[in-house]
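Input.
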Amino acid sequence: MTLELRELHPTFAAEAGPLDLRDIESEEVLESIREGMDRYAVLVFRDQRLSNEEQLAFATRLDGELHRKTGSAVLQKSRFGDEALTDVSNVGPDGGLLESESRKRLYSLANRLWHTDASFQDPRGRYSMLAALVVPEVAADTEFADMRTAWDTLPEATKASLEGLRVHHSIAYSRQTLGFEFSEEERDRLKGAVHPLVLTNPRNGRRSLYLASHASRILDRPVPDGRLLLRDLVEHATRPELVYRHSWRNGDFVIWDNRATMHRARPFEDTAHRREMRRVTTLDVGDPARVAQPA
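Output.
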């Protein structure tokens, strides 16, 4: 079956179909999905019904090695038995809604900050794949920011000043900005990682800014007001014309490229409305696919 794409935003994001991802094993079809990711950075698949095992298997077929050193794994073990499957839900192990002061809920509040999955690890995250199992009756949207167009629209002098800079990313840093407290042992396990401020997709040559709430400081050389610069770049990248807002439906399966986007959850009354989602993230190591030449 052939992949069809329909644009959802002028610069990125597309609805993809009519595939049942559980059945996709053809390298030709998998490559067409990767090419769609190269072009749009966010793909929305509707009416998908993957089990946990099927989601893990599809992610491996599409992009290889899975991210298992998640930040949430430092706090508690996955209730699904595999740390690659992140519980993006507001329910506890007993199936009940989390209390307002639950440590898991307080930790998850930082998902409302603009972020990139697994930027605090080395190797960093590449694709994230989020499956919506239970969507509340109220709006509980996710916003995505186009970091490629954010780079493209910077003044040339600013681009030149950013070349070669590296940034330290820390999930402990982003959560501590909201007052979340880690134990000494947890902090020791969340040292963070260093990545370039500007990335290039080796498949198509597109460049993008790589930063978000996990970005704690600029390294390598003195940069006046470095933390303010990072905030200014996030503000530049999240102008309304660069943001796609996704309204979830049950069965949605959204894939995004963490090297080319930031995202954030929008708030809803999470102590009153159930929302259950599962996320898998792949690591930016090697490339299981052929290298496409820039158009």
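The longest helix spans residues 27-40.
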